[in-house]
């Protein structure tokens, strides 16, 4: 993604859709994101069903999605958005970082989550990171979520076997990138560690999505952890 600066040329704004049933929350998010050259709020929706419709109509880059909403909750809305031809990145919004529904949302295809009281600089950084294909979950949060998913599954051995079978199709370099994703590293951190360019890392991550049948980095991390690679 282009960086700001005198020599960087015109910035293509990140198109953001806000989906929350509380008008005050939507207004606060729009206020925090508004006025930034690199971010444009292209629309708002007050429930999950409207959010899916607006995502299909507006083709945003990132959706900030509440979990608890009328008509259609954020979990099902996230699943339906992921089924779009060119799905945007989805960041779910929650009040509690230990909410079981957050885990379900990530499994449904969301790219991460934010607490609703996230400071504006962190909110902006998260939107930029997700739009650029980087994870917005810290390594510690990623490990916590993965541990919870594994602990809730009585068939952990079967998960390990399935994960190893899925990972067996990867090349040696793709496996290295997968392990790094499993550790919660960003594209830039992976590039530095493996002596690759950031675009090359992005290409490898895209190939991981394709080969593993995943839609986000958290799902890659779950597969890697299930296999015992991290």
TrEMBL record:
HTH luxR-type domain sequence ranges? 163-228
- List, alphabetically, the Pfam families matched: GerE, Response_reg
Q: Which UniProt keywords apply?
A: DNA-binding, Phosphoprotein, Transcription, Transcription regulation
Q: Which CDD domains match?
A: LuxR_C_like (cd06170), REC_NarL-like (cd17535)
Q: The Response regulatory domain covers which part of the protein? A: 15-131
PROSITE patterns from the entry? HTH_LUXR_2, RESPONSE_REGULATORY
- What SMART domains would the database entry show? HTH_LUXR, REC
InterPro entries named among the record's database cross-references: CheY-like_superfamily (IPR011006), NreC/VraR/RcsB-like_REC (IPR058245), Sig_transdc_resp-reg_C-effctor (IPR016032), Sig_transdc_resp-reg_receiver (IPR001789), Tscrpt_reg_LuxR_C (IPR000792), WalR-like (IPR039420)
Xref: Gene3D superfamilies: 3.40.50.2300
Q: Which residues carry this modification: 4-aspartylphosphate?
A: 66
* Protein name per the record: Response regulator transcription factor
